């Protein structure tokens, strides 16, 4: 039992039937229903999808905000270019009107001045004409280029020139209903007479469609230009789209132009911030959904492994507690067994007082093979025994008990120590058992005040500090070995002591070991003399190799 190590054990879960249990025995009802095991996975999926939705919404919002900002910047830039075109339209007409007013309506000089603007391969105006204002209404004086479309409607012309006369700015009119849509401009000179108006028309595409040049900085935009401040299809001047109005993300601006205004609307053909920014919300959404589903799939497995680890940790903790309990129990049993193999009480002999103390030399659960004993032979003699068996455990303890009981038996036959050692050599043989033993006998004669020490490989008594020399040295194994016997004369008041091999450790500073003492009584007084060597009693012993001291 003492050599067995700690064992592992685990408690069976509550509610499980054991192998020897009664199959008909009723089990207590479950206290609570088992929770659905997939709730954590659902929660992880919901949280992951929520986070994905928030991130995708933020990416989409950022993209939309940037696109609107960039589109507003582009439409303002385009509006600035259109506004910059006003001087190029107004200056030739204003100069022609001033020339006519200064020359009294000289047609030849008017035509000479305005011809470069209305003729050539790429004329600025399709038609430029000079009109004289009078009481009978506006009258056409001269035309450079094609006939003006405004002349076909005298009432409309009279209304427009009246508006132009009242304005100091360039007047603009849209002639958009006919087969040849045009945009008309009129400027009245505020000169000497104020009776002449220079009028020009610019031709518009018949279907109002015109593509921007690919080299233009606005080639990546769809656009629509309206006359006035509203996006009315009837007032459309030009566009690059088939269907109006422009839908989707768009930006518009109103551009003052003379006494009227233009409304310019644009939309991006391609994402201005780039395709990656446009697709980023989708990328976030797809990746987020995949990650959320993957996390939801792995969550039950991770929870199962965590629960398994917790159960394993609990089982290990219970095993450790059981091992600690078993270790403490086995150590207690070992100490109890060790002390049980020692004498329960020391013999009481008149004239001598004895005492003993035992301390384990090594901490552990194994039983040692060292022991001591005091045997009262008669009323005047006492035999002190100190021995040690090699090794530890039950085997060493069994050998120790065998030797101890054998010594008691031989001592009862009144055999001397040397004879006892010779007989013990037949009990323990290193060749067969693999164990060795060392024994020290001290025969105390109270009347003669003499201690006879017989040693078989054991340490000498601490009172004898002299070096020992065996006159019968070892010669091989078996009966060639001899026990060392000496006599010590002890005066009254002097103490004799014995020790085992652990006592050597004490001499080099360790505090563990075994200590055995016998104290003489107060049956006399006197001063002791030095220990005297008496002689040797040869005898065979076979308890293993003796621990010889140096010569």
Structure notes:
The protein has 551 residues and is α+β, with helices and mostly antiparallel strands. The chain has nine helices and 17 strands. The strands form four sheets. Strands 2-1-5-4-3 form a five-stranded antiparallel sheet. Helix 1 packs antiparallel against helix 5, helix 2 packs antiparallel against helix 3 and helix 6 crosses helix 7. It is rod-shaped. The two termini are 45 Å apart.
Topology:
Elements: H1 39-84, H2 86-103, H3 107-118, E1 127-132, E2 139-145, H4 154-166, E3 171-175, E4 182-188, E5 196-203, E6 221-227, E7 236-239, E8 251-257, E9 260-268, H5 275-340, E10 352-357, E11 368-376, E12 381-392, H6 394-412, H7 417-424, H8 430-433, E13 437-445, E14 450-456, E15 484-489, E16 496-498, H9 502-507, E17 515-520
Antiparallel strand pairs: 1-2, 1-5, 3-4, 4-5, 6-7, 6-9, 8-9, 10-17, 11-12, 12-13, 13-14, 14-15, 16-17
Characterize this entry briefly.
The chain is of the alpha+beta class. Helices cover 35% and strands 21% of the residues.
Helix percentage: 25-40%
Radius of gyration, Cα only, in angstroms? 64 Å
Question: What general form does the structure show?
Answer: rod-shaped
- Give the SSE order as H and E letters: HHHEEHEEEEEEEHEEEHHHEEEEHE
Q: Which regions contain 5 or more consecutive residues with pLDDT less than 50? A: 1-32, 464-482, 493-499, 501-551
- The structure class reads alpha+beta
Comma- or semicolon-separated keywords:
single chain, about 550 residues, alpha+beta, 5-stranded antiparallel beta sheet, about 35% helix, rod-shaped, disordered N terminus, disordered C terminus
């Amino acid at each position: 039992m003492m050599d067995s190590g700690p064992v592992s054990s685990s408690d069976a879960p509550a509610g499980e039937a054991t192998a020897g249990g009664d199959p008909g025995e009723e089990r207590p009802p479950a206290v609570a229903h088992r929770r659905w095991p997939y709730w954590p996975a659902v929660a992880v999926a919901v949280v992951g999808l929520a986070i994905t939705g928030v991130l995708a919404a933020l990416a989409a919002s950022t993209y939309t905000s940037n696109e609107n900002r960039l589109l507003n910047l582009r439409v303002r830039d385009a509006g600035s270019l259109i506004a910059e075109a006003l001087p190029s339209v107004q200056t030739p007409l204003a100069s022609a009107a001033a020339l006519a007013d200064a020359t009294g309506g000289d047609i030849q000089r008017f035509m000479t001045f305005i011809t470069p603007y209305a003729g050539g391969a790429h004329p600025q105006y399709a038609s430029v004409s000079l009109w004289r204002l009078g009481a009978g209404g506006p009258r056409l004086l001269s035309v450079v280029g094609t006939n003006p479309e405004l002349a076909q409607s005298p009432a409309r012309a009279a209304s427009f020139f009246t508006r132009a006369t009242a304005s100091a700015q360039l007047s603009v009119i849209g002639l958009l209903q006919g087969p040849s849509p045009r945009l008309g401009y009129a400027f009245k000179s505020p000169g000497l007479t104020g009776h002449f108006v220079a009028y020009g028309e610019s031709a518009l595409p018949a279907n109002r469609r015109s593509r921007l040049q690919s080299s233009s900085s606005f080639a990546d935009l769809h656009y629509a230009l309206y006359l006035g401040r509203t996006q009315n299809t009837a007032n459309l001047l030009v566009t690059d789209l088939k269907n109006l109005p422009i839908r989707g993300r768009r930006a518009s601006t109103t551009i003052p132009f003379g006494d009227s205004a233009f409304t310019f609307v644009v939309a991006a053909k391609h994402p201005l911030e780039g395709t990656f920014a446009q697709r980023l919300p989708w990328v976030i959404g797809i990746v987020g959904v995949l990650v959320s589903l993957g996390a939801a799939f792995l969550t039950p497995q991770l929870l199962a492994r965590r629960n398994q680890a917790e159960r394993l940790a609990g089982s290990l903790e219970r095993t450790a507690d059981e091992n600690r309990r078993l270790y403490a129990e086995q150590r207690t049993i070992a100490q109890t067994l060790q002390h049980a193999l020692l004498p329960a009480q020391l013999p009481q002999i008149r004239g001598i007082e004895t005492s003993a103390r035992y301390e384990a030399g090594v901490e552990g659960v194994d039983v040692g093979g060292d022991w001591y004993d005091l045997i009262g032979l008669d009323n005047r003699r006492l035999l002190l025994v100190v021995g040690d068996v090699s090794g530890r455990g039950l085997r060493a303890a069994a050998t120790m008990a065998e030797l101890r009981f054998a010594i008691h038996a031989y001592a009862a036959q009144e055999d001397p120590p040397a004879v006892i050692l010779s007989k013990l050599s037949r009990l323990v043989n290193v060749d067969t058992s693999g164990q060795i033993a060392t024994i020290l006998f001290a025969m105390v004669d109270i009347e003669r005040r003499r201690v006879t020490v017989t040693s078989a490989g054991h340490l000498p008594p601490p009172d004898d500090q002299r070096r020992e020399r065996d006159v019968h040295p070892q010669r091989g194994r078996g009966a060639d070995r001899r026990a060392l016997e000496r006599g010590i004369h002890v005066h009254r008041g002097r103490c004799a002591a014995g020790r085992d091999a652990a006592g050597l450790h004490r001499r080099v500073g360790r505090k563990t070991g075994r200590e055995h003492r016998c104290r003489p009584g107060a049956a006399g007084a006197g001063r002791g003399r030095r220990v005297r060597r008496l002689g040797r009693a040869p005898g065979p012993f076979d308890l293993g190799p003796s621990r010889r001291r140096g010569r």
